[in-house]
Amino acid sequence: PRRSRHLTNVFTLLMRVLIMVLLVFAFKQDKVRFSWIPEGKRTVVIVLDASASMRYQDGEDTCFARASEWALNLIRSLDEEDQVAVLMPGLPEPRLIFPPISDHETVNRAIQQAQPGYGAADLVELLNDMIGRLSEEDGTAALEFHVFSDFQKAGWNDAEAEGLNEQLTDQEILLFLNHVQPTVTANAGLSKAFFYPPAILGDGDFQAKAHVRSSADYSGGNTLRLIVQSNEQKKKPFRLLPDQTVTEIIGGVAEGEAQYVLGQLELDDDAFPVDNVFRFCLPRLPGIPVLLVDGSGRNNAGFRDTPFLKHAIQPKGKARTLFLPRTVDWTTFKAGPLDDSRVLFLCNPPAWDEAALEKLKTFVRDGGTVVLMPGQREELEASIEQLPPLKGLQVRKEVLPQEKPMAIVPSERPAELERKLLGIMPPPSALVIRRRLIFTSVPASASMVFQYHDGGAFILSVPFGQGTFWITSVGANRDWSEWPLTPFFVIIQQELIKSSASRNMIALSAEVGGMLALDWAEDATELDFRLRTPSGDEKTLSLSRPSRTKPVVVRGFDEPGFCHIQRNGKERVIAVNLPETESGLTYASPDELGLPLRTARLYQADSWHEHQQNLVNLHHGRPLWPFLLCCAFVLAISEEFFANIRSRTSGLPDTLRQFLRRGGRAA
User: Fold this and answer.
1) Three-state DSSP string of 70-102
2) More reliable by pLDDT, 571 or 202
3) Which of 549, 553, 554 is nearest to 522 (CA)?
């Protein structure tokens, strides 16, 4: 027992000494590091999001202004020898300061003078690229990436973030994601718009179909306005619910004789004004040249196969019309150029030779439209297979014993032109037919435009190059059918010409940071253009294309507005708009950002104070004294408990045992 008490006293003393040691270290306030920034020179890469969404006005400042001030605070906290690089995705050139430098004053001035751009930012792609570049440099110090962004979901690719996670983990790079998202996102913006027709014919009407997107915190009324040539033509009020996309249609009139119809769609002002405007540029076609080739030739009474066709294209011979038809015979067609024509009607042609065949192929391949109509010569049926896109097509002429009413019905899979025609008027339920062409072995690329009730094609459409061949089953005079006498004949010819012209005249619009395939008629593959930006700056674009028939791919659209492209006295106007992704204003949460970066050394913050605390913990470690005090408290409780257990007697004392044995009587 005495030895047991001795051991108890020793253990108790040791525990009390340990408690005193823990208290001493606790009041010393040491710290412990679980991960750290190595001592010495650091390489700090500041990624300052300069995409269009950072222009959102959050209270008195924009998101970009808040991010810039936060980044400046970080630079002030660095040591003199630390190197800094600044990247600003969203600008045409994101590398504001690169490679890293230790001149912090220069870095400060660059950030203070910087302004956000109008493009989109792919943060993950930029980080992957910069890690690769910096890792190749010898002697790079401890590498840190500090990203200041609103973290739009459109700018953070989770699939690419998996690869980023591997790079960060393998190279032990520190990544700081600092959030400058708006506290409230109340925005309505124009994400995109479509115009029909894409080219204005004369003083014609047009329609704009606008897609308006609201953010999570927006609800209420708004107004869509149509501005044409600086004049407001129409406005249309509508309502939006939170996080909703609606389609609004508004119509306008393109008056005047300007080469281009310039205008814009506008919404009411809000905290993000750059997506409240959508600009458009529609080419104007004062008239569409149409060439009518009459294969029967001119006689004393004039042309035989094209009078109905000319009347349909230019009713009552009106001089002022959208369509400018000109009738020639076969010889004139072969000898003359086709440069001024957009659509060619070939009626009752004779057998064509190699020169005529090559002329037709070139015309269509370069974007023209050729309509082939049969006649009495019956040469079309024999020659049609010589055209490359019609190779294999079998054509047979059917002469009915007597004229027969036949119903014309929609095809099983209506093409765009057929759908538009059906919206104007239905096909005739009974069309008197005397003879017709029957098509078999139709090429896979061909499509039918209406059909007979027995399934045969009424018109065939076959694309070739940038243009189209059309073949009608009946001719353009009354020898074949009563079709030329019907309003259906007039509507088909006019809409076919309109669609052909509109197809070759696309709306001239692009996005900031995007590209535009621009058709440019010139016999050259290397071209230099002068580009004048909306802010008035000019620069030279040296572009190339595979062949003269291919479009030129134009880049260099850095801001929204109207850009002017010039070469050799010719000019095109391009309407440049905000990228569609920048009007969403939907943000990734810290958990969504952190999930694909699960093994990386990742630190996130919502304020400079929190960011600073992350840096302090990494530099100096976390405080150890709370842990030591807890250990001292646990030991004190344990020591008291241990002492009581070890000192407890195992039996009754002898004096007490004798007293109890005498029944409690004293000796």
Assistant:
1) HHHHHHHCCCCCCEEEEECECECCCEEEEEEEC
2) 571
3) 549
DSSP string, 415-465: -HHHHHHHHH-PPPS-EEEEEEEEEES--TT-EEEEEETTS-EEEEEEEET
What b/e sequence results for 605-625 when a residue is b if at least 16 CB atoms lie within 10 Å of its CB, and e otherwise?
beebeebeebbebbeeeeeeb
Residue 243: the pLDDT is 93
Taking alpha carbons only, the member of 70, 49, 71, 229 closest to residue 151 is 49
pLDDT at 304: 87
Q: What gap in Å lies between CA 242 and CA 612, rounded to an integer?
A: 35
The least confident of 134-138, 205-209, 241-245, 485-489 is 134-138
Q: Are strands 552-554 and 561-567 parallel, antiparallel or unpaired?
A: unpaired
The β-bridge partners of 464 are: 467
Q: Give the closest residue to 389 by CA, choosing from 332, 343, 444, 319.
A: 444
Does the pTM surpass 0.70? The reply is: no
Q: Which of 252, 320, 258, 326 is nearest to 287 (CA)?
A: 320
Highest mean pLDDT among 248-257, 383-392, 471-480, 545-554: 471-480
> Stretch 518-545: mean pLDDT, rounded?
91
Burial of 554 (0-12, 13-18, 19+ CB in 10 A): buried
pLDDT of residue 319: 46
Q: What is the pLDDT of residue 100?
A: 93
User: What mean pLDDT is predicted for residues 644-648?
Assistant: 59
Q: For residue 197, is the peptide bond before it cis, meaning its omega torsion is within 30 degrees of 0?
A: yes
Is residue 214 predicted with pLDDT exceeding 90?
yes
Contact between residue 543 and residue 608 where contact means Cβ atoms under 8 Å apart: no
Helix segments in 93-143, DSSP class H: 104-113, 123-135
Radius of gyration of the chain (CA): 40
Residues 161 and 301: their CA atoms lie apart, in Å, by: 77
CB–CB of 531/563 below 8 Å? Answer: yes
Residues in a beta bridge with 210:
193, 248
CA distances from 601 to 34, 158, 607, 648 (A): 11, 17, 19, 54
C-alpha to C-alpha distances, 441 to 67, 380, 465, 663, nearest whole angstrom: 66, 17, 21, 128
Distance CA 341, CA 290 (A): 6
Q: pLDDT-derived band of residue 277, with 50, 70 and 90 as boundaries? A: very high
What integer pLDDT is reported at residue 3 of this predicted model? 54
Assess contact for 254 and 206: CB atoms under 8 A. Answer: yes
